[in-house]
Amino acid sequence: MATNGTTRTVTIRLQRFNPDVDKKPVMKEYTLEITSDTTILDALEQIKATQDGSLTFRRSCRHAICGSCAMNVNGRNTLVCNQRVNAHLDRKGAVTVRPLPYLPIIKDMVVDRTSFWEQYQRVKPWLVPPDDVPEKEFRMTPEEVAALNDAEKCIMCGACYSACTVTAVNKRYIGPHALLKASLRVLDPRDTITNERLIEISGNDGVFRCHTIFNCIDACPKKLNPTQAIETLRKLAQKREAFVAARKERQKSL
Amino acid sequence: MQISHTRIFQLQRLSAIGLVIFLTTHMVVAHYPPGHLDFSRVIERMAYPLWKGIDILLLASALVHAVTGMYMVITDVEKVGRYRQVLGWASIILFTVAFIYGTITILAFRLPAETVNLIP
Ligand code: HEM
Ligand code: FES
């Protein structure tokens, strides 16, 4: 997209934390010139290049696909590489950027995502297909694909995980990201460990902990719907045996 | 006491449906009835076994709902997780005591004819 050429001066308010020096995070303000196309990630890069080389943050693709740059902008979790500074300025011409909340801060915008990945692994995010793989491809019906609700588009940025009030107080909770992935596998007619999956997600740390407050939907940069996935899993967990039997039947015709 | 989360979830949703019915009825009949409201009307209505039954169901729904809700939000906190067993029993005891006490109170209502004799 072309830059319209006009620049303006804005304030970027950043939460800084250096574990070697600081006891707790502090807010610092940086003034810089932006154009209408400057993204928040561009602004961070600019600050790092011209004002403070110690500013630390994760980024990679700059195209909203790698999921590394999720941060909290003016109180909402989002990717910063696809958000223009202009769109987030308050009345005083400032934007506030913090690391993803409720996760231990390693440095500045970099948070420790260990619990996020542990919970992800816990749901066995991979597909477990039948042993006797057919010669031709497995075929899913258009309805079965539609039921996945685009869950495969998740980029694992952690925005939903860190926006969830249950994960905020309980890192044993499986979390919206992993439950979304679990729904993807549970609803996949090729998957063979449906029973095991449904038992795992309906335990103490699973779907029944969700309070349906939609923070995850609000935070998702890919407009996915973890709440709906959790609701679907709740329904299936309550009729697990019937669902597993139907799955076995379905696999005969894959 | 270890009740599965599926059961707690179901209890909470079922009792919420109970609340929609009984709490609505309760608000209309007991708090905002057409015309004026005084004690004689309350005691007249409460003399009917059907109303006693409805009120006991309201009591049960509210208690089940509140107790399961409290249990769930308290055990959400990771550090509290290890006291789940104790909290489960505490919830059941709380429910039982409150239910018995509430039921006795509801059943205590008598027909006006019986109560009139008690007034000196
Ligand atoms: C018509 C009336 C009511 C309806 C339809 C209703 C419905 C619900 C629902 C669906 C939930 C689950 C929320 C979640 O997903 O976490 C809930 C939670 C809860 N409710 Fe109610 N409720 C009603 C009245 C009450 C009353 C009268 C009380 C108190 C006596 C109460 C206490 C609670 C508590 C403590 C929770 C747990 C909080 C939470 O899970 O976020 N509710 N209610
Ligand atoms: S840098 Fe890859 S998603 Fe933002």
Q: How would you characterize this protein structure?
A:
The complex is a heterodimer of chains A (254) and B (120). Chain A has a 5-stranded mixed beta sheet. By secondary structure, chain A is an alpha+beta fold. In chain A, helix 6 packs antiparallel against helix 7 and helix 7 runs antiparallel to helix 10. In chain A, 33% of the residues lie in helices and 15% in strands. The relative contact order of chain A is 0.12. The longest helix of chain A is centred in the C-terminal third of the chain and has 13 residues. Chain B has 120 residues and is mainly α. Chain B contains 5 helices and no strands. In chain B, helix 1 packs across helix 3 and helix 3 runs antiparallel to helix 4. Chains A and B meet through helix 9 of A and helix 1 and helix 3 of B. The structure holds protoporphyrin IX containing FE and FE2/S2 (inorganic) cluster. The site of FE2/S2 (inorganic) cluster (FES) has 12 residues of chain A, from loops.
What descriptive keywords fit this protein?
heterodimer, A: 254 residues, alpha+beta, Ubiquitin-like (UB roll), Fumarate Reductase Iron-sulfur Protein, Chain B, domain 2, 2 domains, five-stranded mixed sheet, two-stranded antiparallel sheet, 10 helices, 7 strands, 33% helix, B: 120 residues, mainly alpha, 3 helical TM bundles of succinate and fumarate reductases, 77% helix, elongated, binds protoporphyrin IX containing FE, binds FE2/S2 (inorganic) cluster
